[in-house]
Amino acid sequence: MKIGKVPPDILQKSVYPFLGTKRNEVLVHSGLGEDCSIIDFGSQVAVISCDPITGADNHSGWLSVFVSCNDIAACGAKPIGILTTVLLPQGSTQGELTAIMKGIHEAAKSIKIEVLGGHSEVTAAVTKPVICTTAMGVAKKDAFVTSSGAKPGDDVIVTKAIGLEGTAILATDFENFLIDKIPESQIKTAQKFIHKISVISDGLVAAKAGVSAMHDITEGGLLGACCEIAQASGVGIKIYKESIPILPETISICEAFKINPLGLISSGSMLICTPDGNRVLSSLKSMDIPATIIGTITQKDKYIVSNGSKIPIVLPERDELYCAIEYVSKN
């Protein structure tokens, strides 16, 4: 298998048949396109998600908090805490562990959640720090959102701009590679995108406004998120390429690495499906959250409309971030 997410066909054969005993308390079980499981606790539900950080070197502690807490917000739930596992390679220093934990601490403080516990160890099993975070949140039982509720006719909305996380990682970890390829001002601006990757407000505001489904745009970028929400909901999706918000820094950096921004990891942007796009846009705008209607949910087929042509949306084999890292290693 290639670096990146395990492909859906392998998950179906090698993972999903082996998930223990289904419990009646679990309202939303593990499945393709669903990033969270949801557990019944009477009038409320507990929402749980788990994600690793493997593609970033700098700011990995900070990123680890948001990649899992953003999934919680995509369910319309409020994150309350995380459990964090930190695996360090042999030879790591105390200072490196401290830097990771400071990043986790600052991110947790910024969204008012607690680090509830976890595990740390030094192991020969990894060659760089690996962080895995399990996030927990709460929502009212009659108000949680899933990835599987999108319906034909729904408007499809993207918040902020795509590629924020991937752009920040590449601008930070590969600044020396970029310095003679794009303006230094763009590199510095892109590095600051790391502070834009939370979609917690996006998810909570949109959920109150009325949505059918939401999905945090992470590995696989917009293309991956479209495929996952369509598969989970049993629908199609039509996206207008010219409507997709992409910042100039993301365009420049993707061109420098020769990668497709539509397939770049995009924490910081939420994919929202709703029967009333203008209402959701208005609610987001009232909280100073930029958002754009980029398409609609259809009965079947997944495609992007560009200059009048239909381009099929295919689940990326791997995130463009890994393609960029590979490109640097060869050049």
Summarize the structure.
The protein has helices at residues 8-14, 60-73, 94-110, 164-173, 175-178, 184-191, 200-209, 221-233, 248-257, 277-286, 320-330; strands at 26-28, 37-41, 44-53, 78-88, 114-122, 130-140, 155-159, 213-216, 236-240, 270-274, 291-298, 302-306, 309-312.
Label this structure with key terms:
seven-stranded mixed beta sheet, 2 domains, 331 residues, 60s Ribosomal Protein L30, Chain: A, 11 helices, alpha+beta, six-stranded mixed beta sheet, 26% strand, Phosphoribosyl-aminoimidazole Synthetase, Chain A, domain 2
Question: What layout of secondary structure does this protein have?
Answer:
Layout: H1 8-14, E1 26-28, E2 37-41, E3 44-53, H2 60-73, E4 78-88, H3 94-110, E5 114-122, E6 130-140, E7 155-159, H4 164-173, H5 175-178, H6 184-191, H7 200-209, E8 213-216, H8 221-233, E9 236-240, H9 248-257, E10 270-274, H10 277-286, E11 291-298, E12 302-306, E13 309-312, H11 320-330
Parallel strand pairs: 4-5, 9-12
Antiparallel strand pairs: 1-2, 2-3, 3-6, 4-6, 7-10, 7-11, 8-10, 9-11, 12-13
Characterization of this structure:
The chain is α+β, with helices and mostly antiparallel strands and 331 residues long. The chain has two domains: 8-140, 2-Layer Sandwich (60s Ribosomal Protein L30, Chain: A), CATH 3.30.1330; 155-330, Phosphoribosyl-aminoimidazole Synthetase, Chain A, domain 2. It contains eleven helices and 13 strands. The chain has helices at 8-14, 60-73, 94-110, 164-173, 175-178, 184-191, 200-209, 221-233, 248-257, 277-286, 320-330; strands spanning 26-28, 37-41, 44-53, 78-88, 114-122, 130-140, 155-159, 213-216, 236-240, 270-274, 291-298, 302-306, 309-312. The strands form two sheets. Strands 8-10-7-11-9-12-13 form a seven-stranded mixed beta sheet, sandwiched between helices. A hairpin with an 8-residue loop joins strand 1 (26-28) and strand 2 (37-41). Helix 2 runs parallel beside helix 3 (94-110). The two termini are 24 Å apart. The mean pLDDT is 95.
